[in-house]
Amino acid sequence: QVQLVESGGDLVQTGGSLRLSCAASRSIKTIDRMAWYRQAPGNERELVAVVMRGGRTNYADFVQGRFTISRDYAKNAVYLQMNSLKPEDTAVYYCNAIYNAIDYWGQGTQVTVSS
Length: 115
What we know:
single chain, mainly beta, 4-stranded antiparallel sheet
């Protein structure tokens, strides 16, 4: 089982930056895949960025080089560095982990980008 706790969401202006953190309750070296998703009001949850256990990363097209997903094994944490934020990035951001073929989710952290 994996518990995930996100933090770092905030209100920022257009063009600003935020770093989201996701703390896992077990060693992330054992987790097959970790990812960030987001969900804006009235929209479906969508994938933002993925990091596989082997280190390969993948990003949604809308990221356009603005976000970076990274890991810290010592802290069992995954991060999402978000730069050049736009109002359309406003959403609740969720951390996701796939461990033993089971999906785990955090509670989400709110990111609001003002224009």
